[in-house]
Queue: 2 jobs
Job 1
Amino acid sequence: MIPHPELQAADFTPEPSTDSLEQLSRPSLSYWQDAWIRLKQNTRAIISLYLIIGLAFFTVLGPFLWTKDPSAQDLDQISQAPALPKTALLVSDYEPWTPPNVQGHPAEPAGYPDNLDAVTNFATVGTPNTQSVRFTWSPVQDAGGYSIYRSESKPNGLQGLGLPLETLTAGNIVGFEDRLNLKSQTYFYSIIPTDGLDEFEVVTTLKVTPVQSITVSQALERGLIEASDAPGRSVSLAFHPFGTDYLGRDMLARLMQGARVSLFIGVVAPFIYVLFGVFYGGFAGYLGGKVDQFLMRFADFVVALPFLLFMILFKIGFGIGPGESGVLPMLVALILLLWPSTARLVRGQVLKIREQGYIEAARLLGGKPSYLIARHIIPNTMGVILVTLTFAVPSAIFTEAFLSFIGMGVAPPTPSWGSMCNEGVKTMLSHPHELFFPALFISITVLAFNLLGDGLTEALDSKMRSRE
Amino acid sequence: MLDFDFHDIEPMTMPKILILTLLIVAFTNPVMAQSVDAAAQTVKIALAQEPPQLNNMTATDQVSIFVLGHVMEGLTRYDRRGNLAPGVAERWELTETSATFWLRKDAKWSNGDPVTAHDFVFAWRNVVDPKTASQYAFILYPVENAEAINQGNKPLTDLGIQAIDDFTLKVTLERPTGYFLKLTAFVTTFPVQEKFYRATGSAYAADSKDILYNGAFRISDWVHSASLKMEKNPNYWNSKAISLEVIDAEYITADTRARLNLFIDEKIAYTQLDGETYKDALNNQFRIKKFVTGSVYFLEYNYRPERITHNKKLRQAIQAVFDPDEFVNKVLQTPGNLPGASLFPSWIMGVNKPFRQEYPAVVTRPDLAKAKQLLREAKAELGLEDIPPLILLVSDSPTATKQAEYMQGMLKTKLDLDLKIDVQTFKQRLAKMTTGDFDIVGAGWGPDFDDIMTFGDLFASWNLNNRGRYNNPEYDRLVRRAMNSNDPEVRMAAMAGLQTIVHEDAIILPMYEQGVIYLQHPKIKGMRRTVVGSDPDFTYARIVP
């Protein structure tokens, strides 16, 4: 038999309370701290976050660091690809030039010659520069004119002569001036004699590399030189690290200005309509019943409204005249038409949460509705709300890009990334950088917001809480 | 022709796009279809579209005019070098009040009947008949009573045309019309045999057998919407001067890309290029040719008194900073366009030489200091501290915004003037131009007939195409003087005065003369591009071996 120990009164005194028992082995983590830890482990999301912060700096601080006027046209550097700074020769202002006319040489042949000799003494006059390239040659017997071509690659006989620059219809005019969009690169000029109508099968080709140049008045206008500077010296041209567009406007400055429009629409519109959707959906979900039915049917009605049509109606309704920016009606249309999806999500969430046991418990313990909403319902829907917001941002940026692409958005000369793409796509093959940069910025922004949204979904999911 | 809008090479104006998109195909080798064949003198052409109307009295589109120009002939025609030459009429006499034509006796219809003066009387009456509703009836307005008849106020028989005998035609003129002869080379004035027309009834010109031909070619085979073949007309009076045996439009497509591919495959020997396709043509090492279409593009101001642009100093300030040379070379960037200098394009003929050679337009280099001074004066006259933003109305064509943006940036930098760009569709732009809902509009004008007057009367106070409501009695007086005279010297002097007014009053800001580029097989010789009428003209073309 096991002897019973003698029970004493002391045995029934409570154990003295020590903190060490209640002590948690790990630091207490709030919901947000936990979410942040899990987000930090998601490399993609963190890179995206840095990208978004970088974009914010680019948009807000960029214009203070890169002070070029985004609408200033630099016609000496049209469609310039990204390159290092260039220098140019300062030349005097352009003066029209009259090509030489050979006295005594007939302008038109008497009949229709069967053969013509090739042009001889085809040479440039003066120094060829990017303002003008001037030529002269010896007149050809029986010629009724000359055709002049320009190619960027060496022609192979009569093949690949390139752009037709001029068709002179007099045999005695023996000069020509090319000013067509000259760049500082090698050109092959070809000249073919004609009988006034048809070209003959003889060609003379000349290789010319014009010197990059700028006229005194253009340089003065852009503040590149002092008024006392004389032609002949070298001038540093404006530097365009991202190149220029089809009117010689600085791409970097335009991207920064365009980012303001794109990110303004992309951030402000979703923020407002998500906020509205949260209140609307939360209200409907919490009250439930007939009110909920009514509110949600109204949300269904709004979903059915066509966005583009309303965008146009708002534009008219706002009295946006021709040539004025359509950004404000775009913002209003986005806010008024896109909130129902958030409202639906939040309502569903609220309906679910309010039936949960802990809510019942809180209510039984005397929690007031305001306490229930603030303490339990909103924090539990926060994950959904944030995720909706991060996914709404790229879709709004896309919408802006699309509307500007079809001409419903910003008014020139204000750029937005979408309108820059629209212009760039026209010269996609010849000057790809005009499309590439705005498209790249749209892509990066949209991707960054999407990846961040993905990361947030995982981080804010309470079921994932405290998992390692 | 209707107004056009800013364009560079790619977009042709709507009416022109039809004509300029013809393609030619020929055989180089009797077995394999290739683009040219010298032995058979065969040319196949592909059209931009099915000719919608081969009845010359009502045809308005460029494809129909192209076909008709080859298969029919008027009193006069254009020769190889583009000069006016005898057609059905052997010789003529033009006075202030009338024109008499003596028809050649060997001009025959394709059914063997001679072409007589009665055929012209019938056709011309039909053109001005209100029941015919020909859009080009106004071409005949210089003929006595034509306008009244066309508006239904007089009977058809009052038209000032009469057949004195089978081969003598007398036309009475409403007023002296110096360019009347040029009108007789236009398709609307071509003859129609009454007997044949009555016999075919409403089917006239519906198919190849439903037309009588009197031109250098005749339609031998027409598969609607698929192909159209023209063969040399043995009955043509001058057939020995025609080298080509066959012009065969084997393809009908409006797709420039498809046509370029056909050209690359040597299935066609001619195609127009646009901004989309010319780089490919360059890459394929083709020899590209260029042609000035004849259209002039300019900025037109609104002269209604409530508009700021009625202020002359403001317009002159804009004129003083705009550099058409820079615009053409740096902004348009495509070859073929000429810098604008005048309302009159450089190809318009004067007395003996091109008008612009006889009366050179004033070309001023941009002068910023002068422009700023003019702008200050304009502000003082208007009593304004700042000029409010001006509305620049343009079409939504692919390059219009680019050109408008250039103007916007240029005026902002140089004069601190604000422009708002109003982009509208072609139709909507015309509507806004008509109601005067603009300050400045990007407009253009293409010639209807080969005379300076097609441009000259554009800003006459009565002209409905004067959308800005420009009203200057001196301008009107000069237009009237040129209209009422037969003497080229007097007419051109009046037009020179008008050119000066256009410049000094800065009525318009000439921007450019439009040029286009195209590909042509090098073995085709003598193909002529023309500004008015049948373009391109193969009548005197030949294929060289």
Job 2
Amino acid sequence: MTETSSPPAGTVMFPRPKKRIRGRSIAILVFLTMAALFFCIPLYVLVTTSFKTMDQIREGAIFSLPEVWTFEAWRYAWDEACSGITCEGLKRGFVNSLEILFPSLIASIAISAVTGYALALWSVRWAGGFLFLLFLCAFVPFQIIMYPLIVITVNMGIYGSIWAVAFIHTVLAMPVLTLIFRNYYKDIPPDIIKAAVMDNGSFWRIFIEIILPMSGNILIVVLIMQITSIWNDYLIGVTFGGLGAQPMTVNLANMVTVTTGTVSYNVNMAAALQTAIPPLVIYFVLGKFFVEGIAAGAVKG
Amino acid sequence: MRSHRYSLGLALAATLLSGAAFAEDLVIYQDWSSPAEVKALNVLKSAAEKKGINWVDITIPHDTGSNVTLLNLVTGGTPPNVFSENNPAVYMDLEKMGLGRTLTGLFKDLGAVDHFPAVVTKVITIDGEIRKIPLGIQIDGMVYYNKAVAAKAGVDPEKWTSLDAMFADFDKVKAAGFIPLALGAQQWQVGYLTHALVATLGGADYFTEIYGPEPKAEALDSPVLKDAFTWLRKFQQAADPGSVNRDWNMTTNTVISGQALMQIHGDWMKGEWRAAGKEAGKDFGCAQIPGAKAVVVSVDSWGLLGGQPEAKDKAELDFASVVVDPVVNADFAAAKGATPVRADAPTDKLDVCSQGVLDILKDPTHQVQNPHSMVDPDWQASIWEVAFNFWSSPSMTVDEAIASMKSNYDTIVK
């Protein structure tokens, strides 16, 4: 779009639209810079404050660079900061978050992929009604069904454990994920399945040997969606975690929420960054595939 | 219920079974996490351990409003044995579920009730019975000032006897190049300032007519309320431009760093001063709001879970008696920077500000309780909203503010 200097095809008409585009692109650039600043200034404050000492923060100049760069706040937030009387820093919540993340991820993606596959490519009785129900469920706010869910987990005997949190994550992600997989799979030509059935393929064998290898993009999309939402979740963790199974976000909230207590802004900023980094890393590593997957999904369905 | 309790996390179940003979576990649900608060909690923890109580901590931030998490834990069958909660309605809910625990008998036996300041007894009493353990006292509106700045400006905040005298000195402070009054203009801070002003100008009885369990319509016509809003406007005009939506902590830091002379806010401000390594009486001074007819007292208080097996119940009561023990309570208050809940607590470890508060509280007519512990939350929220709107829109008149309070009164209270 931009390399237009060398082609010989340039006519008299050419410079005019080019000028117009330039004017507009300046406006776009200005707008984008403003939008970027809008996000970058708080981020700048967040990062620099986390490297300052409290003495410097008390001076009040929030935009100044740290006089002395120190990792003390980062170390303290990770290792020593108190959440109530337990002073083990964020690392405890980090471990909990990981323990919640893996079972939730595996269960939610596995179950919804298979369900989506069955709904899209096999003739399932009531499939239409079932899809409609799923569609409705995707719009039920969690807060409304929170109480019954607590009672359910209590009866299952898992309330207040990592399994309760993982279970709820899995259940709540099911409608949307199933719909995503179903829509992705429904565009696979039915002839492929028919041929596979003729070749004596079973339900599972077709899924594992034919469908899964075709699902790379959509798996990445769902993986990123799920990692981000599970990692960043607060409400499910705080409601079902009970004693000792609370994720990093709850840990963070305990550290930064004070009403009448003192605030260590540097430690809070460091803790917030530590909590935000894992999904960011995932996003940077898998981001390329994510965009491809979204695009593939968009073209197909 | 019983079986649910055993299906807790492994750690708890294990300790429940194995440790029962030696130490009783108490699950303590609270939300203090800043260094001074944790230090104070550890005072309680080690005192409780001497009584054979094992402190199992569960920390979730919760506001003074409706405590959803506490009720979730109860529904989930893992209720905490001790919980921080101010809202009387929660205690009544627990009572209805058969999980209330009264402490009237225990505190009478301990002889603690006679030593509680009048307002403390009021706060912990719900429906005629004591249902809360008082931990520490905070005053909602105090003047904390930077002594170095006061000396440079040539003023003495402790000499002020009225708000007029205070404002009269502000020109001097400005001339010396300081901000006279640092304030953080957030809704709750303005709300707190408003009720502190109502207590200052109206005294205990009038305060109860506005912020009590049964607010009175006539009280809204009183000249005192007009006065309160007039002063609120003066405070707003005296506040520096940086005050908009500023945390009280950052506001305190402007006083600590010597940009401003003083701050009027709850006396938990002391925490920031102490965290900055400053000493009460030397680096900073404190006083009640000049000319105060009454001060508003917040009492940090925790509740106990009733309907427990005997051993658990005994441990809970032991915990309560540890907390109100005069020596433990004084140590707790000293660590937190609060004021003890007992007038007979040893004062040797307390700083001058806490000692000052204990002196103020000797007069039972000079104290009222924080609205949170008695008023209808909707009514209080509406007052906060009016006060904050008034603060944020300089063109709003006092009469307009009072008129909107009246219309809220008609909707909410009547």
